[in-house]
Design brief:
Pfam families: DLH
Helix content: 25-40%
Number of domains: 1
GO molecular function: hydrolase activity
Shape: globular
CATH superfamily: Alpha/Beta hydrolase fold, catalytic domain
Order of helices and strands: EEHEEEEEHEHEEHEH
Strand content: 15-25%
CATH topology: Rossmann fold
Strand order of the largest sheet: 1-3-2-8-9-10-11
Protein name: Esterase
Organism: Rhizobium loti (Mesorhizobium loti)
Number of helices: 5
InterPro entries: AB_hydrolase_fold (IPR029058), Dienelactn_hydro (IPR002925)
Length: 206
Amino acid sequence: MSKDAYIHKVLPGSPGGPMLFVFHGTGGDETQLLSPGRDLVPQATIISPRGDVSEHGAARFFRRTGEGVYDMDDLARGTSKMAEFVKAHVEAAKPSAVLGLGYSNGANILASVVFAEPGLFDATVLMHPLIPFEPKVEGNLAGRHILLTAGKRDPICPPNLTTRLEAYLRADGADVTVEWHEGGHEVRPNEIEAARRLFAGVAQGV
């Protein structure tokens, strides 16, 4: 278990306050979501790892063999490594709450960590996740707050798979909210505001 398992950036927050992990999309890096994270939870310590897999120079958190076709062995490797990275930071800082936000490939690795370690995050925002497999949750998600955001015309993350993921998460006891917009894979303001409401509610113990 290592706090330095990934190249990452840290924006310090209030001591003893929440900790927010942010996970970039394919081709992003550890700087991509720092500012949005700070805007969403101003008092949080923000931790942003860079994906350790290169796809023709684009950073990702696990390998794939095609669009929407995952290398499941590498996803398992990335999930275990990321879970240990998160736990190392949490155990060192003992934050008041552990929050996660990921976009696209970042949402996919975050979702996979949630399936493997359902007690690790108090609240997660999965922006445009694509989970083409049936998740196996190692426990249950009772009491965990999860926001899914998606575009109704997203060519990368088809709406039916978002709906299926919602059903899986609800079946495992998660408190799930879904925020849609009329567009594609881009993040729109209503998604940001939904994330803000979720994190504010968790910070207030709602």
